[in-house]
Model the fold of this input.
Amino acid sequence: MTKAIQNEAKKEILSINNWSDKKEEEYIKFTQDMKQTHTILVPTMLPIHFRFMVNILKSYGYKAELIDNHSNTIIQEGLRNVHNDTCYPALLVIGQLIDALRSSKYDLSKVALLITQTGGGCRASNYIYLLRKALKNSGFGQVPVISLNFSGFEEDQAFKITLPMIRKIVNAIIVSDVLMCVSNQTKAYEINNGDTDELIDKWINRISDNNQSRALVNFNALKKDVKLILEDFAKIYRSNEPKIKVGIVGEIYIKYSPVGNNNLEDFLLNENCEVVIPAFLDFCLYCLNDALIENKLYGGSFIKKIIYKMLYYNFTKKQKIIINLFKKQGIFNAPSSFCYTKKLINGYVNEGMNMGEGWLLTAEMLELINSGVNNIICTQPFGCLPNHIVGRGMMKIIKEKNPQSNIVSIDYDPGATKVNQENRIKLMLANAKI
Done:
């Protein structure tokens, strides 16, 4: 009886392996020839950061376009093509990409899709397989999907992440965080509507143009541009009216993406609030820090450990330099350093809690409170278990130790209405203090 069961198990394993091999052979690869002919569609997440990323891809000869469709059909496409138990960010990203393909704006024989893979325990690493399945079921099986990752996945594709490209991406993240930080501090107070957005467009275009700026390839040039950015935004005419500051934390896609959070930032601006959002570089440093923690706890390659340490040191050093530029200018509130944020979790969570946003989500809430931003919205997407543990699960102890805090968790899923979400936020704002 036991042998019979073992034989059946072996057959099942062989069939799974054969299916997996077949699956890998079937997907359409992005080839070198496609670089000249295909337009790469990039789903939106961070509005400023991803505009830089698209421009960087263009500088390396890729035809790239950032998708900005925000219609309700995105959710419907996601529900139609992704199982409803899948996390909400995956449903939205896949829905947005398929909605773009159905729009008739693109030649389907000359278009490719780009999607990120984190490589960690988050289900975001599997989005690409869900997307390919959804494309096939929707009649777009011929469209190649590109994986943007730093974990060595799908290296047989013609799309390559090179060291010069990584340098540009890192510098773009730094300057994007600066633009996000100063624009949030001016947009709520600008007297002439549109001044802030105009400067954002100006600096994205200028820094993306190698003839006007070397900021993406040279950190000294980036520092000079950051000084000019701070001076430029300081010239915007602003009112002195005190406003409620509201921090936004949560799962990375829902926190930053207007598609994911139902234009949360615009809603808060209309409610006469100043929006405060932690830097994206902190999430990148969190990922590097996790690699070092896992190496310490479970062992691993010594060479990788040294590389991660060098990267971590380099990025934190650059971050501190930028923070000092803010402090030297003295007009805008400087962002907190990652090293400072990391220390705040002592007595709350352990660094080993690193699935999804992990301990960083808790740390960001504490960082906001310590910087005087006591009103916090924690965005909670359906299907993200780690986010519920380190987000909603930590709110009680955070409130107990910081009684001045005013935190609300808002659920985002296909069945949640925008009206209900906004009403819950309004209740939180009713208790908010400036």
